[in-house]
Amino acid sequence: MIGQILVSLILTAALTLPASAGFQLDGRYQDADGDLIADIPTDPADQVDPVTLIFAYTPVEDPAVYVDVWKEFLDHLSEATGKSVQFFPVQSNAAQIEAMRAGRLHVAGVNTGSNPLAVACAGFRPFTMMASDDGSYGYEMEIITYPGSGIEKPEDLKGRVLAFTAETSNSGFKAPSALLKSEFGLERDTDFTPRFSGAHDNSILGVANKDYDAAAIANSVKARMIDRGLVTEDQLKTIYTSQTFPTTGFGMAYNLKPELQDKIREAFFSFDWKGTKLLEEFSKSGDTSFIPITFKDDWAVIRQIDEANGVQYSCN
């Protein structure tokens, strides 16, 4: 059924969990105010003020595509902070999180499903995400197939190959895994064969080219790929659409100097999207501005999905 509330399908009990259920920061971080994100160190000796800010956007698609897309924003960020800013084209969610944990990444857009791990293990402090002019935001998880596959509904995935993206992805793995098990009684490796493509664009292209029978993807990525002509609508068929989820969360490393964090935050909210390549790219999926968010409230549904999947935020 289209538009049904995914969390209730996953596990009704999850809705009764407190916002912090199953979530805990790594021992290197403190959370005295209970907002579920790492506090800024109180000792100035533990705060950092890098000469160059390193920025990375989530590696949902080929990161090279976004170097030019983000240039105008990064120029604005440089002006607002008084620092040079460098785009870091990360190749995986794990590499992005590890870079921030190691102090090599300062400002980032982290994909929906990886936000809890980045917060818990890398001291990521998300504070904004993209939205439309009316404040609406997010994307839906879709399970897609190709016309003529013989798959008309989720139950038809039994005995077929379903592509996921990566285990840290909400729409590319976590949400569909929980949904297929709880609502349709389908478990990976038992009822269908999982494949991991590494990225949403890989999964979408794989289905369009009939390399995979089906795939779980973020429809915001699909919309941008159709707009670019990388795939056509008649190559794909959607058999399930979820509720709306929060999209990429943008934030910074916990140990940046407080005044620098304030300038970074201000840069996001003062950026003028009009006429920019950022608007040209992300308006394809309805995004035209940055809005404030809190990890505690806006990512509660994602942490509940993790809880239903038995996810533990272990930091190595």
TrEMBL record:
Keywords: Signal
Any single GO BP term: transmembrane transport
Chain segments annotated as transmembrane: none
Signal peptide segment: 1-21
Alphabetized Gene3D superfamilies for the sequence: Periplasmic binding protein-like II (3.40.190.10)
Stretches assigned to coiled coil: none
Matches recorded under InterPro entries: PhnD (IPR005770)
This protein's GO CC annotations: ATP-binding cassette (ABC) transporter complex
Sequence similarity: Belongs to the phosphate/phosphite/phosphonate binding protein family.
NCBIfam families: 3A0109s03R
UniProt protein name: Phosphonate ABC transporter substrate-binding protein
Source species: Methyloceanibacter methanicus
